[in-house]
Amino acid sequence: MSNAWSWYVIFLVVLNIGGCAWLLMWTARRRPGDPKPEDTSHIWDGDITEYNKPLPKWWINLFYLTILFSIGYLVWYPGFGNFAGTSGWTSAGEHDLEKARRDAQLEETFGVYADRPFAQLAGDPAAMELGRSIFANTCAACHGSSAQGAPGYPNLTDDTWNWGGEPAQILATVLDGREGVMPPLGTVMQGIGGDVSITQAAAYVRALRTDDIEATLRNDYMAARGKKYFDSLCVACHGPEGKGNQDLGAPDLTVRNTLYPNTLDSIRKTIVDGRHGSMPAHRDLLGETRARLVAAYVWSLSNSGGTEAPPGMP
Questions:
Q1: Tell me: the pLDDT tens digits for 81-108?
Q2: DSSP-based three-state secondary structure for 254
Q3: Crossing angle for the helix pair 221-233 and 195-208, nearest 10 degrees?
Q4: What residue ranges define each of the domains in the chain, with the CATH number in brackets?
Q5: Long-range contacts for 23-26 (Cβ within 8 Å, ≥24 apart)?
Q6: Which residues of 192-226 are buried (b: 16+ CB within 10 A; e: fewer)?
Q7: Residue 164: which H helix or E strand, with range?
Q8: Which of 69, 166, 237, 252 is least surrounded by CB atoms within 10 angstroms?
Q9: Residues forming beta bridges with residue 73, ordered by sequence position
């Protein structure tokens, strides 16, 4: 808070406290010439009379005590401009103390699951219930309550993984996040072959998702023409067969479970404008143990049949 705002706050506080004290003293005194309490002459219905009696002394004193309390409060706690108060209390400090207390409670609850292998966690109903709860609170906003995703948000219940579906890879995704970028190629392709080249490349990508790519290319002129554009611009990330690269987060273009709609218009938009997918890091939010629980829960969604950990499982 700047000094100007600090003085403004101090002025308002002093004005309000002083005004309350003055108003209380001014209204509590009786002055020469004031009518007696029963001499207001305000009478209704014959026996309903208005009096002008002062407040009892104990009530007046209670108001004064309230004013004194407010002054003591401002001495002890911050509220008087930039004056921090003699107690040193701050909302940030109170937050940190409460967070530390809650973290200790969480550590006690989740500590029994620390460093346990995914297969053990996946076979523990209590651990999976905790993982499901963490998922509902943290992940469902993007991936859906059923974890089946939405356009631009991966389906976590199938076996299609842009960044890898092994336990170590899933845990790394939860802890440190992922940043997937498909660069816009519209300007480049306009320069190579015009708008028709974009449609041809999109047709070829759609052909990759058919059961027989060779037969599709023989019967689809646009898709066959689009292969040369794919080979020159896309293989660096997606590979010569369109199988993708999990180290880069480049999706497998041959699968049916696509991140965006498998339509010609959607694929054209991806080529022209690019895509940018961001999975935020949760290391600071969840910590290692809770991240492991939710990662094990996600892993279990597509590996519910197995109880043995694959090689290299954390």
A1: 888 889 988 899 999 999 899 888 888 8
A2: coil
A3: 90
A4: 3-89 (no CATH), 103-177+280-302 (1.10.760.10), 181-276 (1.10.760.10)
A5: 24/60, 24/63, 24/64, 24/67
A6: ebeeebbbbbbbbbbbbbeeebeebbeebebbbbb
A7: none
A8: 69
A9: none
User: Cα–Cα–Cα angle for 144, 149, 122, nearest 5°?
Assistant: 75
Contact 274, 230 (CB under 8 A): no
Q: Where do the H-state alpha helices sit in 44-114?
A: 57-76, 91-110
Q: Helix H segments across the chain? A: 3-28, 57-76, 91-110, 118-122, 125-138, 140-143, 167-176, 186-193, 195-208, 213-219, 221-233, 235-238, 264-273, 283-302
Q: What is the pLDDT of residue 42?
A: 78
189 among annotated binding-site residues: yes
Best CA proximity match to 81, nearest among 11, 20, 15: 11
153 DSSP 8-state letter: B
Residue 102, phi then psi, degrees to nearest 5: -70, -40
pLDDT tens per residue, range 172-206: 999 999 999 999 999 999 999 889 999 999 999 99
* DSSP H or E stretch at residue 181: strand 178-182
Question: Cα–Cα distances in Å, from 313 out to 134, 166, 192, 292?
Answer: 21, 7, 46, 12
20 is in an annotated binding site: no
Sign of CA pseudo-dihedral 283, 286, 287, 293: negative
Q: Give CA–CA dist 36/203, Å, rounded.
A: 99
Q: How far apart are the C-alpha atoms of 69 and 20, rounded to whole Å?
A: 13
- Is 139 one of the annotated binding-site residues? yes
